[in-house]
Amino acid sequence: GRNRAPPAPSRGGAPWMQKWAPADPSAPAPAPAPSPGHAPSTSIDRIVHRLRNLGLGTDDDEPSSPADAPLDGRERLGDLLDRSWARPDRQFAASGLDEAVLPWERDRESDGEEVDGVKRKRVRAPSLAELTMDDVELRRLRGMGMTLKDRITVPKAGVTQAITEKIHDAWRKSELVRLKFHEDLANDMKTAHELVERRTGGLIIWRAGSVMVVYRGSNYTRPLKSQPFDGTSSPRKGEDSTLFIPDGSSTAENDNQGKDLTAQHDNAPILDLHNTEDMTEEELEFNQMLDELGPRFVDWWGTGILPVDADLLPQTIPGYKAPFRVLPTGMRTSLTNSELTNLRKLARNLPCHFALGRNRNHQGLAAAIVKLWEKSLVVKIAVKRGIQNTNNKLMSDEIKNLTGGTLLLRNKYYIVIYRGKDFLPTSVAAALAEREELTKDIQNLEEQRRSISIEHSSEDGFDGHALVGTLAEFQEAQARWGRNVTSKEQQEMKEASFRSEKEKLFRRLEHKLSIAQAKIHRAGKLLSKIEASMILANPSDDREMITAEERSVFRRIGLKMKAYLPVGIRGVFDGVIENMHLHWKHREVVKLITKQKTLAFVEETARLLEYESGGILVAIERVPKGHALIFYRGKNYRRPINIRPRNLLTKAKALKRAVAMQRHEVSSLMLGCHVKELTSFCFSLNS
C-alpha cells in the first residue's frame, strides 16, 4: 500500500490490464491495520510473529492477517503480491492493491511519506544491538557516542590483531569506542560491521559513512592477549566452546568486572556459533584441507574461512626440488582461450587459500601449493594489504618457478596459479621418478658391459679399439677386393672433379645474376607505377627576368637568411611546393637546402622546383649543410588557390619512390659486380 493506484484501463483493453482496475466500492472493506500497541516489540514476540506468518502457529491461534485466508480465484495482482514473507518489524495498515510496491517505484519513496493518511517508513533490517538491547539504553549510548572525540583509525589492512588490542585498551576506560575506516573497508561497511562484531565481541550501536561506534557490553571482560581467535568465533568462549553475546539490555553500569567468568556465562545469552556446526560439507572439507597446510591468517580482512598465512611457512626447505611433471601423449602444454576463461571463472568464486606478504623465499609455500594441487585445480593467493613494498610480479614469478604451474591471474589483490596439464600427484610422481632412475641404472649397466666386451676383444690387435669405420678397415677391404688404378685413370678423375667444381661455380654465378635481374625488374616496375601518378609541369614561355644587380642582392639576402626549407631523400613533392608558397607569403626570397652530393642532381632538383613553384632560381651555392637553392618569387607573384599541387607525389608516395630508386641503384651495382665476376670466370675457363 505504498504506491498510488494506477488509472482505470480503457474499455476493450487487454484482460490482464483489467486486473489493475480500482477496487470495487461494493467489495468488503479491508481488514483494519493493527494498532501500534499490538506490534511485536520483544524478541519473543518477533519470533512468534514470524512463525504465524509461515503458518506454523497452533490451532488456537487466530490468523494474523487476511493473507492467511485461502485463495478463491478472484484475487488481483496486488493481493498476490501481499502473500509473501512478512518481516517482523513491518506494520501492515491495509491490504489490496495499495500494498503492492513495484520495483521501479521503490526508489521514489521517501522516509515518512504519507499515503492515504497512513505514514510508512522504509524497512531496514535490525542490527544485533537493536535486537538485544533496550531502546532506552540504546538511545543513551548513541547520545554518548555522538560526543566522542577520540577515535581509532583502521588502516588498509583492516581489523588486525593490533587494532583489536587498541579497541580493548580503549574499552578499559570507556564503554564506547569510535572507529574510522579507510581504503577498501570504507567502501564496504557491511563487511566491516561483521568483522568488528566477530573479532572484538562488541556491539555496533551506530554507523554512518565510514565511522562506527562500538559498545563493549555490560558483561565485558578483557580477553587474554595470548588467547587466540579465529575468523568465525569471538575470543571469549565458554567451557562448551560456544560464543556468548554481551548483555546490553541492562541500564546499569558494569559493576561486576571482577566477578567470576563462570557466573557471567550463566547470565549471558548463549549463541552457538561453533565452526563445524555452521559449515556445509563443502566448507568443512575446505577448512580441514587448509588445516593440513599451515597456520591461519587471523588478520584476514574478509569474511568466511580464514586463509593460510604464507609468511609463517618456512622460507627455505633443504633439498627442495620442483615437482616431477610428465605431459600425456598428444596433449598441449598451453591453455586455449576458452580453458583460460573457464579456469578464471572457477577461481573467482573460490575463497582464498593463502595470504602472502613476502616477495621472496617461498619454498615452504611452494610445498604447500603442491600438496593443495592434489585436491584443487587452482590455488588462489591473496596479497596482504597494508604491507609496504609488496610486488605481486616477484611473488608470482618465484612461485611459478618453484612449482612449475601456469599463471592465470595476477594483480595487486590476488594471484591465481593453475597446476598445469602435466601435473602429477606426489605418489604418482615418486613412482615415475623411481622408474626413470631404474631405467637409467639399467642403461648405465649395459654401457659398462659393452665397454668391457670391447676391451677384452683383442683378436685384431688394435689395443681394444673397434675396427669398424677406421682407415685400417678401408685398407684391408681395398687389399682384398680392390684393384690398382692407373695414372691415366687418376688424371681423368682429377679433370672430372675440376670440371664439376667449375660447373657448380658457374651455376652459382648464374643464380646470383638472375636474382639481381629480378630485383632490378621489381624495383623498376614499382618505380614506374609510382611515377605514373607524377605529372611534371612544363616550363612557362613567359618567364620573368631579373637583372644581374637584383640577382646579386637576392643571393646575399638568401645566404644571410636563417630560415630554410630542407629537401630530404623524398626529393620534390607537393609539401615542398606548399612550404615555398607559405614562405613567400611573408618574404620575397626562400632558401632550400638539399644534401645531394652530385651537382647534376642538385641542378635537376632546382629546375624542377622552378617549374613547379613558378619562382625564379637566383643561385645554387655550396654551404656546410649541403647545397643552398635560392628562389625569388617575382614582382608579379600571386599566390595560387591551391598551394599544394595535385600533379606531384604525396609525402608517402615520395618516400616509396625514394626507396624504389635506392633499391634499383643497389641492384644495378650488384648486377654489374656479378657480370664482371662471370666474365672473369669465363675468361679463366678459356685460358
From TrEMBL:
**Disordered, as annotated region:** 1-74, 224-262
* Cellular compartments per GO CC: chloroplast; mitochondrion; ribonucleoprotein complex
Which PROSITE patterns does this one have? CRM
| Ranges of Low complexity composition bias in the record | 10-24
Q: Where is the CRM domain?
A: 131-227, 333-430, 544-644
Family annotation (SMART domains)? CRS1_YhbY (SM01103)
Q: Which Pfam families match?
A: CRS1_YhbY (PF01985)
> Where does it localize?
Plastid, Chloroplast
Instruction: Kindly list any coiled-coil regions of this protein.
Output: 428-455
Q: What InterPro entries does this protein map onto? A: CRS1/CFM2/CFM3, RNA-binding_CRM, YhbY-like_sf
Set out the biological process GO terms recorded for this chain's protein: Group II intron splicing; mRNA processing
Q: What is its main location?
A: plastid
Q: Does the keyword Repeat apply?
A: yes
| Family annotation (SUPFAM superfamilies) | YhbY-like
Composition skew (Pro residues), residue ranges: 25-37
What domain of life does the native source organism fall in? Eukaryota
Keywords from the UniProt entry: Chloroplast, Coiled coil, mRNA processing, mRNA splicing, Plastid, Repeat, Ribonucleoprotein, RNA-binding, Transit peptide
This entry's Gene Ontology molecular function terms read: mRNA binding
Q: Outline the subunit composition.
A: Interacts with RNA. Part of large ribonucleo-protein particles that contain CAF1 and/or CAF2, and RNC1.
Main function: Binds specific group II introns in chloroplasts and facilitates their splicing. Acts on subgroup IIB introns. The substrates of the subgroup IIB also require the CRM domain proteins CAF1 or CAF2, with a simultaneous binding of CFM3 and CAF1 or CAF2. May influence the biogenesis of the mitochondrial small ribosomal subunit.
Q: What is this protein called?
A: CRM-domain containing factor CFM3, chloroplastic/mitochondrial
Lineage of the species this protein comes from: Eukaryota, Viridiplantae, Streptophyta, Embryophyta, Tracheophyta
